[in-house]
Amino acid sequence: xxxxxxxxxxxxxxxxxxxxxxxxxxxxxxxxxxxxxxxxxxxxxxxxxxxxxxxxxxxxxxxxxxxxxxxxxxxxxxxxxxxxxxxxxxxxxxxxxxxxxxxxxxxxxxxxxxxxxxxxxxxxxxxxxxxxxxxxxxxxxxxxxxxxxxxxxxxxxxxxxxxxxxxxxxxxxxxxxxxxxxxxxxxxxxxxxxxxxxxxxxxxxxxxxxxxxxxxxxxxxxxxxxxxxxxxxxxxxxxx
Length: 240
Known about the structure:
Elements: H1 2-15, H2 17-21, E1 34-46, E2 50-61, H3 64-84, E3 92-104, E4 112-126, H4 129-141, E5 146-153, H5 158-182, E6 187-200, E7 227-239
Antiparallel strand pairs: 1-7, 2-4, 2-5, 3-4, 6-7
Helix pairs in contact: 3-4
């Protein structure tokens, strides 16, 4: 009876939650061999085929109503010019509209309103980057006096990202072969691959590259250059 009672006590202890918590957690790694974790970044390049630019009109007048009315008239001409150049309606979006007082400051005196400034801008997407400079010149001729950008981007980055992923795997394996050789081992296989980041040639934050005035004759040129497309992978190898 004592033997049976002792056996039951052992069985009960093994089944208790406290005993279950004492069981060590075994990491999910291969049973035999050396594990090597490598982080690698793959690259490729593409010529941007899309540009986004913000074009706007800034006007000033003695009253808010006059500033906004003048601004609306000029912006109507800008929008009409965009339509004449063939820019699709889906590629034109209002970015901002505003009117604000302008102040004169003097020592020991409260600020005095001297007039009002109205602003209106649209975001324009160019699907033919080569024509964007000529279109901008047309906008300036119709009253646009502030242009910010351009943001150059790749419209379909999927294939480029896949090239970068292939390059990343090749770079990771080359590095693993280097470590294996230095350690007197060989690369047996890849255990896991995790993608930890990508850059599809995203545009940099916009910068003001032109504040134009009507009457300038020089033609605006926009150079596409190349965008770097990158993918970062974490690859686990088994060395033996």
